[in-house]
Amino acid sequence: MWPGERRLAERLQQKLESDYLLWYNVPVGHKRQRPDFIVLHPLRGIIILEVKDWSLDNIKEVNPDSWTVLTSEGNKSFKHPLEQAKSYTLAIANQLQLDPLLCQTEARYAGKLVCPYSHGAVFPNILRKDLEARYAQEPGLENILPAHLVICQDEMFPSVEPTDFQERLWNLCTHQFGKPLTAEQIDRIRYHIFPEIRLSVYTHITETEKKQSDKAQKPPDLIRVMDLQQEQLARSLGDGHRIIHGVAGSGKTMILLYRCRYLAENTTKPILVLCYNRTLASYLQAELHNTHQVTICSIHKWCYELIQEYKIPIPHSKKFSNNKSAYCNALVTCVLRRLETGHIPTGQYGAVLVDEGHDFKADWYKLVVQMVDPITNSLLVLYDDAQSIYGETGQKHFSFRSVGIQARGRTTILRINYRNTVEILSLANTFAHNLLCARDNKDEDQPILVQPETAGRHGPKPTIIDFPSFDTEVDYLIDQLQELKAQGRNWYEIALIYRGNFSYGDSFVAQILVKRMEKAGIPVNWISNSQNNLPYDPTKNSVTLVTMHSSKGLEFSAVLLCGLGFMYENEANLAQEVRLLYVAITRATEQLVITGTSQSVFMNRLKQAQE
Question: Which of 230, 356, 383, 455 could lock onto 226 through a cystine, CB 3.0 to 4.6 A?
Answer without folding.
Answer: 230
